[in-house]
Amino acid sequence: MKKLINDPADVVKEALLGIEAAHRDRVRVDHENRIVYRADAPVQGKVGLISGGGSGHEPMHGGFVGLGMLDAACAGEVFTSPVPDQMMAATKGVDGGAGVLHIVKNYTGDVMNFEMAAEMAAADAGTEVLSVVTDDDVAVQDSLYTAGRRGVGVTVLLEKIVGAAAEEGRPLAEVADLARRVNDHGRSMGMALTSCTVPSAGKPTFDLSETDMELGVGIHGEPGRQRLPVAPAKDVAALLVDPVLQDLPYGQGDSVIAFVNGMGGTPLIELYIMFHEVSQLLEKAGVTVARSLVGSYITSLEMAGCSVTLLKADDELVRLWDAPVNTPGLRWGV
Amino acid sequence: MAVDVRGLTGWLRAFADSISEHAAELTQLDAAIGDADHGTNMKRGMQAVTTMLDDSEFETADALLKKVGMTLVSSVGGASGPLYGTFFLRAGTALADTTEIDAADFGAALRAGVEGMVARGKAELGDKTLYDAWAPALTAYDDAGADGDLGAALAAAAAAAARGRDETTPMVARKGRASYLGERSAGHQDPGATSTTLLLESAAASLG
Questions:
Q1: Residue range A175-196: average pLDDT?
Q2: Class for domain A187-312, per CATH?
Q3: In a designed cystine with A34, which of A42, A75, A297, B16 is the match (CB 3.0 to 4.6 A)?
Q4: In Å, how far is A321's CA from the nearest CA of chain B?
């Protein structure tokens, strides 16, 4: 294992120190509870948005804390959900009197820990909490016999859009409804060229030969749905876009926010090649790209590969997408 | 033979040692079908429990097991934290007001703990989860412990858990991260059923 770390046991702790040192204009860090807060949290009268999850997906979620996006993010160990104590502390820390929304990716551990946190919050009878679970990964086909679809790329788009709505001062129920609408209208599919290495494990999570790729991966180095020989970008783009298009379905005349995401180990030049292929396929399908995002925003450590997320977008979603955002990971309009 | 708070503490320490010893193996099993963290997480959690035991005195089994549950919930994360945490919280509740725990009391506590976990994780038999080790273990415990022999009950439970653990290997996972693999999850032993077996083997060795 070759990594720029000091000790595998200190990876999350030291990364949070770095986030604080680099971005203290926008965020502050509670190191004891491993929470990244917006610098001015709690914002009075605004619905507080918190998310969280295992670390190793940076910039998600800590990099999406700031004006127009999250109020706090709880960092778990690498690829391990944070614990209810952290979510309880974050909920309290962002409560500006308008309630708190938990944004949870659909993974067994994340859902259970956020559920326990919500139960404890209810028992405390303090803050009003609603939860939204993202589950946009079309690689998981049969939700009846699995833990359900995984929350992946749409989580990034949702945090941006819902963050803008909360910033406008909308009430909790409305913010939660919007979050569900974004999740319902978004679909993703990912692939990997290499595995990743969890620092504490010290070796690659799965074996993938030089000539193979893994289709339908999530964001934890878990093996995907199918192993195929590596193929040109245009073929990979079709393998990702087709199932996404078929699933919603999107069609002629629809407008989307198109997001090509890097898994952590793929250079931007390749992501742009992929975006070109994706946009060609969308044009062929009669789907208009209203807005786009290209880069590594929801990653799986150093895994090479990418995912494609399409979010069917109406005027309201596009307007909220365009609203100002000022976080370490996304910044425009400010 | 009845068990008291000291006996339970011995069991928890034995489980912590066993987890520590098998952490790499648990993580390896998890890497095959999950996310390669079960051993690391359980080790961190049981180390937290050990530290907590070093620093605390408990009058009742109820208070002890509840504290163990909260410690695991707060330190493990993932799915194992809420599942193991819920197990100890519910088992503790079932032992409220019991100081001398006999075989029937202990069996009732195990069952209450498992019911709590099942409610939290919504697992069914055959889903390739820790419940596939727990379900046969509870049945074996009740059969072998019917005449009040705690040692025999725990030995039978541990052996049944091990068989249940082995039987998870050919199963296709329907819960947790392994379920995303579908048919490809077959051929791998479930990490949660493996750590469950360690928990019961520790109980048989230290309480039996």
A1: 97
A2: alpha beta
A3: A75
A4: 31
